[in-house]
Design goal:
binds zinc ion, alpha+beta
């Protein structure tokens, strides 16, 4: 799953190739956190509502340790088919889900709580609307395409519907793809990005895994783009 054509972009392919190596050596804490979120989306699903996530950072690379933050992107469907931007409007529904998730993680699923960093929240109504009206300048679509190409999804079947919808429009995809590539170059050159890679490499080595020189080379080439 994910959006195939974006994933085939050379720079995204490179990033995901490196990520794959780290994920093969996933920590049990990363796995447990994915399970916590999955359980959460199931409970919300039973109530008739829709929620999904994309995970960035250490859980995306499978290298989360006990006190790592969890960086997450929310996907919700805002009230009454509203197409507002839930993050800038700080809408009620988003507020409720923020609190619910934090409370569930603390009281129900985890013996040990961990800090949640909310990276973003996308309103799926807005995503659908922008695809339908063919909004070539949609920030929501750029973000959706970006997260879906590089992150780790929870409740992916929900997201798949919007991926397919977007993929049907080739012209729209082309425009979004070039914006995604630009975002990516900005990200690679940020200090925190290369710092994260160093951190994940140290963790792997600390846990007794050796990083093959081919992977080290790939990481160096990637970070020096
Ligand atoms: Zn909202």
């Amino acid at each position: 799953m994910g959006i195939m054509r974006f994933q085939n972009h050379p720079i995204i392919k490179e990033f995901n190739g490196i990520k794959k190596f780290f994920r093969k050596n996933e920590t049990h804490i990363s796995r447990k956190r994915m399970e916590d979120l999955k359980k959460f989306t199931e409970v919300i699903g039973e109530s008739g509502d829709t929620i999904a996530f994309d995970i960035m950072g250490s859980v995306n690379f499978g290298q989360a340790i006990e006190y790592s933050d969890m960086d997450i992107v929310y996907y919700i469907k805002c009230d009454n088919n509203s197409i507002e931007d839930c993050l800038t409007e700080d809408c009620g529904r988003f507020k409720i889900y923020k609190e619910l998730l934090i409370n569930s993680l603390i009281y129900e699923y985890s013996s040990q709580s961990y800090p949640i960093q909310i990276v973003d929240c996308l309103n799926l109504n807005q995503v659908e609307h922008d695809i339908k009206i063919r909004n070539f300048e949609s920030l929501a679509l750029i973000k959706f395409g970006f997260y879906r190409s590089v992150c780790r999804g929870v409740n992916r079947k929900v997201l798949h519907f919007y991926e397919q919808l977007l993929e049907e429009d080739e012209e729209l995809c082309n425009v979004i793809e070039s914006s995604i590539a630009e975002c990516f170059l900005g990200l690679i050159h940020s200090n925190s990005h290369s710092y994260s890679f160093k951190k994940y490499m140290e963790r792997l080595e600390f846990n007794g895994s050796k990083i093959p020189s081919s992977i080290l080379e790939k990481i160096t080439t990637y970070l020096n783009k």
